[in-house]
UniProtKB/TrEMBL annotation, chain B:
Location(s), subcellular: Cell membrane
Membrane topology: Multi-pass membrane protein
Alphabetical keyword list: Cell membrane, Membrane, Transmembrane, Transmembrane helix, Transport
GO cellular component, one term: plasma membrane
Similarity remark: Belongs to the binding-protein-dependent transport system permease family.
Domain (ABC transmembrane type-1): residue spans on this chain: 62-242
Domain of life: Bacteria
Origin species: Streptomyces dioscori
CDD domains linked to this entry: TM_PBP2
Pfam family, one: BPD_transp_1
Stated name of the protein: ABC transporter permease
Length: 318, 275
């Protein structure tokens, strides 16, 4: 496996989110996406943040990466206030087509952050090749990203994150736009990289199965504005398998619980009973249209029972 | 770039050249044996062109014009791309300069000729200045819009990986805007050729513009045609050169899959939701 030349060992420091609110727009257009969200990620942990579309998952991840600052509240990395992107934090973006530079060959894309750090060319290329090897793309360094499939491009993006050698890897819906088979492969790749490197991973997804399959812990966010709805430990152990783990009753129990939480949070956010939820409400969250904007920061720990009776065990909350 | 084979380059040149060759052939046939004073046979014109290049002073004129156009364009490119990168990167500056730049672009640079001759004289300098001035606007405006049009995800990535600004400018912003910059330079080139001729027609002892003016005034019809043809060849040659440069520098852009596959702004709902 690849060696790390890490600045700080293992999973770096802990990432602590405290009472974060994020508001976009001003005056009448003001739109609160996140409210009173607190979250802690310890070094070496694999935390999946799961929530419905439009819940502000990407906003949260951008806050965590230091790309944007929360309106109120704090995000600390190792006790230090995070106000801009940090050398210890690498990001794998959802939009790999946009985030891989089409004018650079794959190897140069992977090595580019190192160039920014002033690493010499030979060393850059060596590390880039090493990281490409780690994601199973040892022989595509000379190609351009657009010559690769979607799944391969996302692998390149992961390799770039690895080459950066940050102890913390943030991933924003990283497998959202690849086909199902590649998706499974990429999930397992992420698990094995995490196991061998001991890095901290925060992965944001709308896919509940994915969150449960990957995470040591699943943080369910939802509501309107978004806050933490539930926080559950995934006791599936370190060795996971796409077939047996997903068939495990603990896995299905966890999935059911997460799904229930999300549906309740959504139902509450819409200010109506949990039975109202229909296909159309799920398609487009249109947060600014909900008049009440009710149910602020409450942790939606209300009893969960009757809600999801007619759930057709879809793998994702839509 | 290793992926750009010479064969592909030749192919692109051929695609550019077949029509001019056809036009020349048609011209030769149509004017053969012409007795018209004003429309001499094309062979006469070409013979005159050859003679003037070898024995007349036409090479000197050509070099003078070429030098002016090259320097003017180079100046416009350096200033236009440099300023465009800065203006395109800084939103406030872009908005502030918008109306001014549109005004500058809308004013025909040819209108400056009398003023420039009056203030700067008739040497080589004022001509280069005029060419640079006219070529500047398309390059500048295209650079600004090219920089502004870069996918936000690209900027996000550069910021997320803490790419220093110098590196970001040279390896992210500049290449990202390069396709548009080249489009601007192509427009600028044709403007530059016009301005070159005009600048040499008014108050100039040398240059291709002066050559056709003098020949025309002296009723030296084949010479006038020869000069005109040469200017056309010059303009065309330059644009072919530019195309070759673009092909070398923008291999990634031209080989990429069609536009449809380029990233669009993703809708909020998941794109894979459509079945």
């Amino acid at each position: 496996m690849m060696q790390r030349h890490m600045k700080t060992g293992g999973g770096g420091s802990s990432l602590v989110v405290e009472d974060v609110c994020k508001t976009f727009g001003h005056g009448a257009d003001e739109h609160r996406v996140i409210e009173g969200l607190s979250l802690r990620v310890d070094p070496g942990e694999f935390v999946c943040v799961v929530g419905p579309s439009g819940a502000g998952k990407t906003t949260l991840l951008r806050c965590l990466s230091g790309l944007i600052r929360p309106t109120t509240g704090t995000i600390r990395y190792g006790g230090e206030l995070l106000t801009r992107p940090h050398a210890d934090i690498a990001v794998v973006f959802q939009d790999y087509r946009g985030s891989l530079l089409p004018w650079m060959r794959v190897r140069d894309n992977v090595a580019f952050p190192l160039e920014g750090m002033g690493v010499k060319r030979a060393e850059r290329n060596r590390r880039a090749e090493e990281c490409l090897g780690a994601v199973g793309l040892a022989d595509v360094g000379d190609k351009y990203p657009w010559q690769l499939s979607g799944g391969m491009q996302q692998r390149v993006a992961i390799a770039r994150g690895l080459a950066y050698e940050a102890p913390v890897l943030l991933m924003d819906e990283p497998f959202g736009s690849v086909d199902a088979q590649s998706r499974f492969d990429l999930e397992d790749l992420t698990l094995s990289l995490r196991a061998s490197l001991g890095i901290t991973v925060v992965l944001v997804t709308h896919d509940i199965d994915e969150a449960v399959y990957l995470g040591d812990r699943v943080v369910v966010i939802g509501g309107r504005p978004t806050t933490v709805v539930d926080n559950l430990v995934v006791d599936l152990g370190a060795d996971r398998d796409q077939i047996t783990t997903r068939a495990d009753h603990r896995f299905t129990d966890l999935r059911t619980r997460v799904l229930t939480m999300i549906r309740e949070a959504q139902a509450q956010a819409q200010g109506e009973g949990p039975t109202v939820r229909s296909e159309s409400t799920s398609e487009e969250p249109a947060p600014d249209r909900s008049p009440g904007d009710a149910m602020g920061g409450a942790t939606g720990g209300t009893g969960r029972g009757d809600g999801p009776a007619r759930e057709k065990t879809g793998r994702a909350v839509r | 770039m290793s992926t750009r084979s010479p064969a592909a380059l030749w192919q692109s040149l051929l695609k550019q050249l077949w029509l001019p060759v056809l036009c020349v052939a048609v011209l030769l046939l149509a004017t053969a044996g012409s007795t018209s004073f004003y429309f001499p046979p094309a062979t006469d014109v070409l013979a005159t062109l050859w003679r003037e290049l070898l024995h007349g002073g036409l090479v000197g004129d050509l070099l003078f014009s070429l030098r002016n156009i090259a320097l003017g364009l180079a100046l416009a490119t350096v200033v236009g791309v440099g300023a465009g990168l800065v203006i395109g990167e800084i939103d406030l500056l872009r908005q502030a300069t918008g109306p001014l730049l549109d005004f500058a672009r809308a004013t025909p640079t040819v209108a400056f000729v009398p003023v420039i001759i009056l203030t700067l004289g008739i040497g080589s300098g004022p001509k280069i200045f005029l060419i640079a001035l006219g070529s500047l606007w398309p390059i500048l405006l295209n650079t600004i819009s090219g920089v502004h049009g870069i996918n936000p995800a690209v900027h996000e990535t550069a910021r997320g990986y803490r790419i220093p600004w110098r590196l970001r400018l040279s390896k992210v912003v500049l290449p990202g805007a390069l396709p548009q910059i080249f489009a601007g330079i192509r427009v600028a080139l044709s403007i530059a050729v016009v301005l070159m001729v005009v600048s040499e027609i008014y108050g100039s002892p040398v240059g291709l513009g002066n050559f056709i003016l003098q020949s025309g005034s002296g009723f030296a019809v084949p010479e006038t045609w020869a000069g005109t043809v040469l200017i056309g060849i010059l303009g065309y040659g330059l644009s072919v050169l530019l195309l070759a440069a673009e092909y070398l520098l923008l291999g990634w852009y031209h080989q990429r899959p069609p536009r449809a596959r380029r990233p669009m702004s993703r809708p909020l709902s998941r794109s894979e939701a459509k079945t």
